Amino acid sequence: MEVDLCFAMDCTGSMSGHIEGAKNCIKEVAERMAKMEPAIKIRVGFCGYRDHCDNHNRLQIFDFTNSCDEFKNNVSTVSAMGGGDTPEDVLGGLNAAVHSMSWRNPKRVLFHICDCPPHGRRFHNSDDSYPDGDPNGLTAEHVLGEMRSAGIDYFFGKITYLTETMIRIFQGIIGEYPVFDLTTARPDDLVQKFIEAACSAIITAVTLRE
């Protein structure tokens, strides 16, 4: 059984601990999957995003690899930085994950982790440099529709209450999907939560498409 697993992650300043969690968990995730019967082989990739004000640092993408060590080396170069107002370039990040990654395996998992919603009043009532929505014209309907057409299963890791409205809107577009609670008061818990959520997402995706 072969799976493509892409971490799509907000890489702005507030996300430092969660980026470290992703760096530290993937090797154990792959080892757990390999021990299953039948074994699940994973190609893993990373699509980091920030915000429009971050210009050339807005996206940071590492295509799929079947080497956990290569993945960890790639992601070790990612740092939490940038971001301006409360919302971030969520739709741009998800769009890049769908179209810039070389999805190949029949089982496709996109595990999205963020602490803030996309731009646009429909998603929040916070300060927003782009209250009318994505300045490049992306919509949740378009991005999630393209994701579905590509056969990619979407899973979300919730960190704060700020994404509650986003979760509801996304579910209204593509239907119910698993939401993992990654909120934690203790940093030591974070890696284990990542491992459990990523493994659960992979197993769920495999089961759904059997």
TrEMBL record:
Gene source species: Glomus cerebriforme
Ribonucleoprotein keyword on record: no
Subcellular location(s) of the protein: Secreted
Record-annotated Hemicentin-1-like von Willebrand factor A domain positions: 5-121
Protein name, UniProt field: Hemicentin-1-like von Willebrand factor A domain-containing protein
Domain of life of the native organism: Eukaryota
CDD domains xref list: vWFA
Database matches in InterPro entries: HMCN1-like_VWA, Thr-specific_kinase-like, vWFA_dom_sf
Keywords in alphabetical order: Secreted, Signal
Chief location bin: secreted
PANTHER family according to UniProt: ALPHA-PROTEIN KINASE VWKA
Taxonomic lineage from the root: Eukaryota, Fungi, Fungi incertae sedis, Mucoromycota, Glomeromycotina
